[in-house]
Amino acid sequence: MNLSNLQPAEGSVHRDGKRVGRGQGSGKGGTAARGHKGAKSRSGYSKKIGFEGGQMPLQRRVPKFGFNNINRKEYAGINLNKLQELVDKGVVKDTVDLDVLVSNGVVKSNDLVKILGGGELKAKLKVSVHKFTASAKAAIEAAGGEAVSL
Question: Which CA distances in Å does 21 have to 31, 32, 81?
Fold first, then answer.
């Protein structure tokens, strides 16, 4: 034993907290160390989150606007030049579907996919995804391919 590891004997220290409201002789009787009156002195008091002492809270002072559509569908967009890249790498031969796109890390497995008209497509591909823009569909068919909506 030395000065760095001194500690009281087992069972000699009680950290059970203050026993309040047990008579005036204890020094913690009467108001039981809660002060006088007000919500904080009452039993069952709990401060609401964001409570500012009666001042109009921030979440009510700030103006609200806008609207979130719970039925909105988010599509992962893929440009035609990305499809051409896959063809150039030799990953895709003639058909492009969700499995091919997922396996190459272009989209995630539960994404809805939309083909966009950015870039140009030279290869003849049969593309089957959820949606196409009009320009993308026209470009795929102009290259001799086929656009199939799921």
Answer: 7, 5, 77
